[in-house]
Write a structure and sequence with these properties.
With 82 residues, the protein is mainly alpha-helical. The chain has one domain. Helices cover 82% and strands 0% of the residues. The protein contains three helices and no strands. Helix 1 crosses helix 2, helix 1 packs across helix 3 and helix 2 crosses helix 3. The protein is globular. 33% of the residues are buried.
């Protein structure tokens, strides 16, 4: 396990937990990590399109939280339609 993977898991866990609190969507630690990591990808993609990027640990968390909130919103929207 490299340091990049470990730091991604830490950022993902923090971002997923924060996004869960912001969106009032509680989940387990594994779900939070997955949401945070997926959120990091989504956040980097969307914010990159408008010319914003996060650098460093805090910047990565902020971008991941924004992306995870978007992912939670999308999942909740799809689930409500069913």
């Amino acid at each position: 396990m490299g340091l990049g993977l470990i730091s991604s898991l830490i950022v993902g866990a923090i971002a997923g937990w924060l996004a869960g609190k912001i969106m009032n969507n509680e989940g387990g630690i594994v779900r939070n990590i997955v949401l945070g990591i997926v959120g990091g990808v989504v956040g980097n993609l969307i914010l990159g399109l408008i010319g914003i990027s996060g650098s460093g640990f805090i910047g990565s968390i902020i971008v991941s939280v924004i992306g995870a909130c978007i992912v939670i919103w999308l999942v909740n929207s799809i689930a409500k339609k069913r």
